[in-house]
Amino acid sequence: MAILSDLGAGILIPACAIIGIVFSLVQWVLVSRVKLSPERHSPSKNGTTEYLIEEEEGLNDHSVVHKCAEIQSAISEGATSFLFTEYQYVGIFMVAFAILIFVFLGSVEGFSTKSQPCSYNKEEMCKPALANAIFSTISFLLGGITSLVSGFLGMKIATYANARTTLEARKGVGKAFITAFRSGAVMGFLLAANGLLVLFIAINLFKTYYGDDWEGLFEAITGYGLGGSSMALFGRVGGGIYTKAADVGADLVGKVERGIPEDDPRNPAVIADNVGDNVGDIAGMGSDLFGSYAESSCAALVVASISSFGINHDLTAMFYPLIISSMGIIVCLITTLFATDFFEIKSVKEIEPALKKQLIISTVLMTAGIALVSWIALPSSFTIFNFGSQKVVKNWQLFLCVGVGLWAGLIIGFVTEYYTSNTYSPVQDVADSCRTGAATNVIFGLALGYKSVIIPIFAIAMSIFVSFSFAAMYGIAVAALGMLSTIATGLAIDAYGPISDNAGGIAEMAGMSHRIRERTDALDAAGNTTAAIGKGFAIGSAALVSLALFGAYVSRAAISTVDVLTPTVFVGLLVGAMLPYWFSAMTMRSVGSAALKMVEEVRRQFNTIPGLMEGTAKPDYATCVKISTDASIKEMIPPGALVMLTPLIVGIFFGVETLSGVLAGSLVSGVQIAISASNTGGAWDNAKKYIEAGASEHAKALGPKGSEPHKAAVIGDTIGDPLKDTSGPSLNILIKLMAVESLVFAPFFAAHGGLLFKIWK
Prior knowledge:
The protein has about 750 residues and is an all-alpha fold. The protein is built from 24 helices and four strands.
């Protein structure tokens, strides 16, 4: 028996979630102390000197504060308006898909209300299929709503903090860093704690009906992961199309054709570009990582329910995945204090190391946390379900499974940083290639992306081998949870990037001094790298999560072996490997066609509005916001339909074995494309920033802004935009979502699937 009692586990999990929520609210209160209204400064001891400094930095310029408040309000309104429009469409889909889940799962036993033999132990009686249909539908809706709320809250926090970060940059880079990071922490802790709390409450409520039928209970809970990920797909794709259409339009016409700076208020697409950072990089990413967390928890719980934990009704051991997440919240809380309270950023050079330290500190502390959790929450020896048999596992082996996932995440993070940060030679080489034009820049960038796949794939492969050897599919599921256990810190670092990006945009639009723009640019450059690290984590965890879900699906669909030499499986494998390319083609083309409209509109305004280039007339921002909104809403539906309908069509018409091939194929090719796309785009972006900053002799030789190498770098960055912010990040949702959807519908596919093969025979 475990040291921690069932009651103790039942108190510990919600208590940690509530601590996370309270901590996020405290951080929000601290951010809100930065006022978006002019302040009166009391004279100091050396009044004259300090007053001169304040004049230079614009601390006494009340009009700047008003401008910042106006711009922030415009960005916030644009983002809120877009998300409400998006959520109306997504809401219709959610209701329709919930009905589909109920009808398909209810029809497995002809909507019978009689108890049925359990799937894995035919001697025991389990709740009827109709109950599974009802509760799977409820958990799907719960997951979907939690995902949407997570994205919306993240966006609200980011738009609340962007102008405050700009104003704090007048006092120094350290103050601005703390404001941006605290705002990111609000989002990180709210999302991690809400996801954990909602899942814990749902399990306990469902338990009142299911009683001792834990197999049925945790099978129904998988709907939570499906809801979370399906909403994340639309958030990522819709938000990604929005932000990149605006970004490409603003860059191509503003920077390349007109030679004006980034975020110049004369650029008609500038507000749409800043809105895009919030709806794509913040709301989309929040929903994405929530989906990963929900699915890895569900995959672990499903396998545990048919292992000794579920068979012996050992609640504490059953809740092991949730206790890991609870420990993660406490560890991330301590880690955050290192960035905001224990150490102060004094110069621009300290920003990136401070963010890297966050990853290292959280990983080291979490390793100790996992050891403690494995010791108190698990029996010394237990059995784990392994494709029809029970495998004996020791608690230290499970600790190693979670640990290997956690450290593999750190390795992926640092490799991503090496390939996307302009501190290191890969990005500097890409920047250097701009001397001979855009073509060589594109060639070098693509080569960098392909090469950057090697070490992350070895790290993922190693963690899969170790965790499967120790604890079968449950080991892989908890390895994914290990990678996501520090999700609060990961999200804080991730959200910090777009907040800093927006802060720089607001500084430029408000006409603040060059020194302040330099500070926000430094914050933004570090944010670009950390955003790439966050995408690396999301893709790595998606690979582990989808493999764990794949294992659960194979068991639930009663497939004895997945034999690649069987024609039905091999055909599925080929089609599955093609799907990420089809999906990427759809999303890239969507960004291209939306950007085309945006470029035409921005050109039209520059050509037809008198005085726009001189700064005497205001551009029509609203039209550009409308173009991005309309394009993203319209264009997000086909890629979403491809992902959601593929498992249903394959399962119904070709059967469970062909579907297993499709899932394996999409996982293997999707991970590679996602990593290379994200890193290529990140490298091009930072190569451009490297030239713009001119921080080294090499960079100065390539600059300044407006030079031929700089224009080549801008073109590379523009090509990379849809790769790193639309197609790349959306692919990890594709592989997870297809796997969890297949798991939820597995009973239906096993009972009624493979219609074409049945007719053929």
